[in-house]
């Protein structure tokens, strides 16, 4: 796919999710998509290699999470098991105010993430090489993030168990689940409210469910 065709695809997808972006973030996202395609020739970054699939299945699906994020500036966000940078890098490009930490266990993928951050000229974003199971051994991370997200990390109940310790007071988990959220085998921790948000299909994007776990607002229940 040519550069102009890829740009047209991204523009169509942004219209479908009602997300206007300026020229700079659009160019950053296109460069990011092309760089993933280039690196994937030698490093298994993601299950989709073609730039058009990177745009549709990686970038646009990541950007669909924006409405679930708090609106205030400077929100600290952790993307756990970031892989090629989804959803953390597209979210950072679209909202430069976010303070993003990409957490990835693979050395090669972490190397790509550091390279992508520099290539795109992004500030306020870093990459930490660590296994998700070992995050509890790093006290500096516990209770540090207002938003924690992860894509294809684990079945939902296990993902909740792994990620909740990273949340700051009042923090939320935002976990894309594909078409169906699998809840068997567990549920939200006591005092947390789990909501399953439905995202309808568009011309370019499939129907999807996003799990949002937030502290229960006791004041509204009394």
Structure report:
- The chain is an alpha/beta fold and 222 residues long.
- Helices cover 33% and strands 22% of the residues.
- Helix 1 (3-16) runs parallel beside helix 3 and helix 3 (51-63) crosses helix 4 (88-94).
- The relative contact order is 0.13.
Helix-strand pattern: HHHEHEHEEHEEE
Q: What number is the mean pLDDT? A: 90
Number of strands: 7
Query: Shape, please?
Result: globular
Architecture per CATH nomenclature, i.e. the level-2 architecture of one domain: 3-Layer(aba) Sandwich
Strand content: 15-25%
How is the main sheet built?
7 strands, mixed
Radius of gyration: 17 Å
Q: So what's the CATH class of one domain?
A: Alpha Beta
Distance between the termini: 57 Å
Largest beta sheet: strand ordering = 3-2-1-4-5-7-6
Report a brief summary of the structure.
The protein has 222 residues and is an alpha/beta fold. It has helices at 3-16, 23-39, 51-63, 88-94, 107-120, 156-163, and strands at residues 76-80, 99-104, 125-129, 145-150, 167-176, 192-199, 208-215. It has a domain at 68-221: Rossmann fold, CATH 3.40.50.
Task: Walk me through the topology.
Blueprint: H1 3-16, H2 23-39, H3 51-63, E1 76-80, H4 88-94, E2 99-104, H5 107-120, E3 125-129, E4 145-150, H6 156-163, E5 167-176, E6 192-199, E7 208-215
Parallel strand pairs: 1-2, 1-4, 2-3, 4-5
Antiparallel strand pairs: 5-7, 6-7
Helix pairs in contact: 1-3, 2-3, 2-5, 3-4
């Amino acid at each position: 796919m040519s550069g102009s065709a890829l740009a047209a695809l991204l523009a169509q997808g942004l219209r479908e999710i009602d997300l206007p972006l300026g020229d700079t973030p659009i160019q950053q996202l296109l460069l990011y998509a092309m760089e993933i395609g280039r690196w994937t020739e030698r490093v298994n970054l993601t299950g989709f290699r073609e730039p058009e699939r990177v745009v549709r299945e990686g970038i646009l699906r990541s950007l669909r999470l924006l409405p679930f994020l708090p609106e205030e500036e400077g929100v600290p966000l952790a993307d756990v098991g970031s892989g090629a940078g989804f959803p953390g890098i597209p979210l950072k490009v679209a909202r430069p105010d976010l303070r993003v930490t990409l957490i990835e266990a693979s050395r090669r993928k972490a190397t790509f993430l550091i390279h992508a951050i520099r290539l795109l000229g992004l500030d306020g974003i870093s990459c930490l090489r660590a296994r998700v199971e070992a995050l509890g051994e790093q006290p500096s991370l516990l209770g540090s993030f207002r938003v924690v997200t992860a894509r294809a990390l684990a079945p939902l109940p296990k993902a909740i168990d792994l990620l909740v310790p990273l949340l700051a007071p009042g923090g939320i988990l935002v976990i894309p689940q594909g078409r169906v959220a699998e809840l068997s085998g567990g549920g939200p921790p006591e005092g947390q409210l789990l909501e399953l948000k439905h995202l309808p299909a568009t011309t370019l994007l499939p129907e999807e469910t996003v799990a949002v776990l937030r502290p229960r607002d006791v004041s509204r229940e009394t």
